[in-house]
């Protein structure tokens, strides 16, 4: 019954959503596991933000049983990610 | 910005109790338990705005407005619409589902949150309250901490694991992240205007 780690979240999202970009930050401050996620995935093409968040929530169903607070600060398509970060590609 | 998942923790532990009247969503490390908040000992607490909060000795905290012109708040009216508390089974019972259908059919903008608009008990819930206040639209809030059956049922009803949950025109709009983004890019205003005109 270990708690969810940043690596658990990363590997689950990588396996299920094949992200072009993924940043997971553990933001828990004593309340239990809490994460902030930035993700860019081709799975998000043609989907509204609500549907994108649902995809992430669904992918993390198991982890969410233990995660206290989940923040999805960015859920972009790979193209949107490149548009926002032109210098890094 | 996010919704809070409230899976196994006790209500009082699973949400930051704001240490001031309006908590800051950014103070993510301020996790207070009842014990760390010594004023919560069944006493009537006075707040800046003149209302008082009554903390029950049970694991649940109930807040009520007192001394105002209208002691029956929107919150308490909204909550009572769902009837007595159900046990914490995690299932969406037909009763809860029907109550939600009815309630959401009667109110255009509903925020299911931790605490109420006068005393949000969670930074994320507070963020959405502040956004809605700034939009100048009438809205109802329902304190999901007061009814665990509702709280568990709503996760299923909305297919959304966290709170707050915002409904506009009977439809699930989003949690804190989505509402904040829609507020910033103007979509929230559009959706609300459309809802108000319908």
Give a structural overview.
The complex is a heterodimer of chains A (89) and B (198). With 89 residues, chain A is an alpha+beta fold. Chain A has one domain: BolA-like (GMP Synthetase, Chain A, domain 3). Chain A is built from 4 helices and 3 strands; from the N terminus they run αββααβα. Chain A has helices spanning 6-17, 49-59, 61-64, 78-84, and strands spanning 21-26, 34-40, 69-76. Chain A has a 3-stranded mixed sheet. In chain A, strand 1 and strand 2 form a beta hairpin. The longest helix of chain A has 12 residues, at 6-17. Chain A is globular, with a radius of gyration of 13 Å. The termini of chain A are far apart. The model of chain A has no long low-confidence stretch (mean pLDDT 89). The radius of gyration of chain B is 16 Å and the shape is globular. In chain B, helix 4 packs parallel to helix 6 (176-185). Chain B is α+β, with helices and mostly antiparallel strands. In chain B, a hairpin with a 2-residue loop joins strand 9 and strand 10 (171-174). A 4-stranded mixed sheet of chain B has the order 7-4-9-10. Chain B has a two-stranded antiparallel sheet with strand order 1-8. A two-stranded antiparallel sheet of chain B has the order 2-3. Chain B has 7 helices and 10 strands. Chain B folds into 2 domains: 32-71, no CATH class; 72-198, Glutaredoxin (3-Layer(aba) Sandwich). Chain B starts with a strand and ends with a helix. The chains are: A alpha+beta (89), B alpha+beta (198). Chain A binds chain B through residues 27, 29-32, 34, 36, 49-50, 53-54, 57, 64-73, and chain B through 1-5, 7-9, 13-14, 16, 28-31, 124, 159-162, 172-175, 177-178, 181-182. Strand 3 of chain A pairs antiparallel with strand 1 of chain B, so a sheet runs across the interface.
